[in-house]
User: Which sequence fits this backbone?
């Protein structure tokens, strides 16, 4: 990758890492499900009238729209409102890497290398430590909800594995048509019967949060990420995503004053190391002069 591409990849990492702190600010003024619905509403409209529909099946749009847009983001936003800090959320959400590898192994019969298997075990231990922390960075309920959000993100990943060459930004615009109605209905039922009053009472920080999460984090970042994937191999681009939780925790520490306990730092370190082995395992093996052996799916 040339310097321009590296800088663009780092800009996406920065946008997506800071995104968690911005969500936290938005949740101070809006209930989580309503906030999530607004995010997808402004992404879909009016962009859907100017962006061509991607060449995918209708069930794929609905599958990703429901699993990613409705379930994953609802769980994430609800957890972040009271049960998890922004930095912890950015880290725990990366459980989607583990779930994607495991589900791909079980359903798509993809093989798992020994480096990936070691990485999965290390990351799993790291995630496990957060179930025993009680410092206030994340409650047990928050950890469960965010890990569950990672599972539904992995389901969306499996669906998108069957859509090679699809423009990611165009796809996200059309996917964003699916979540608003069910999210607004759920919000009306569980959060508030007067959504217009919520909008009228929302301060500038809330509007800026929605704009950031909707336009910058979704449209701009996915447009750049899609361009990078079209210009370079996935193996060159996707490892940059490993930096997202690091940026997320740093941004939450600087912007929101969040901090981690010793056990949380240990868990975070294990997760980052485990994810790095899972994503970069074969490359690391080549650097060390080791032969990569594929492990059959039954090993999981």
Assistant:
């Amino acid at each position: 990758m040339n310097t321009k591409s590296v800088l663009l990849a780092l800009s996406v990492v920065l946008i997506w890492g800071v995104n968690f702190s911005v969500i936290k600010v938005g949740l101070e003024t809006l209930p989580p499900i309503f906030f999530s619905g607004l995010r997808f509403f402004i992404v879909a409209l009016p962009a859907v009238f100017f962006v061509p529909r991607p060449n995918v099946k209708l069930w794929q749009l609905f599958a990703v729209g429901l699993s990613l847009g409705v379930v994953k983001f609802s769980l994430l936003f609800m957890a972040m409102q009271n049960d998890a800090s922004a930095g912890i959320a950015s880290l725990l959400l990366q459980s989607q890497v583990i779930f994607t590898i495991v589900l791909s192994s079980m359903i798509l019969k993809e093989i798992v290398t020994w480096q990936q298997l070691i990485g999965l075990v290390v990351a799993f231990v790291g995630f496990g430590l957060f179930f025993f922390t009680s410092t206030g960075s994340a409650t047990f309920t928050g950890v469960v909800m965010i890990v569950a959000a990672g599972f539904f993100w992995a389901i969306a990943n499996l669906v998108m594995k069957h859509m090679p060459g699809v423009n990611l930004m165009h796809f996200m615009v059309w996917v964003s048509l699916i979540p608003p109605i069910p999210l607004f209905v759920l919000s009306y039922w569980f959060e508030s019967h007067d959504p217009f009053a919520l909008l009228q009472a929302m301060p500038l920080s809330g509007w800026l949060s929605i704009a950031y999460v909707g336009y910058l984090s979704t449209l701009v970042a996915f447009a750049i990420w899609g361009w990078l994937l079209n210009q370079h191999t996935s193996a060159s681009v996707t490892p940059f995503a490993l930096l997202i939780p690091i940026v997320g925790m740093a941004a939450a520490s600087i912007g929101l004053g969040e901090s981690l306990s010793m056990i949380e730092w240990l868990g975070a370190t294990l997760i980052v190391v485990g994810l790095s082995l899972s994503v970069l395992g074969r490359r690391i093996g080549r650097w060390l002069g080791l032969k990569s052996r594929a492990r059959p799916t039954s090993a999981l």
Q: What stands out?
A: The first helix runs from residue 3 to 26. The radius of gyration is 19 Å. Strands lie at 112-113, 294-295.
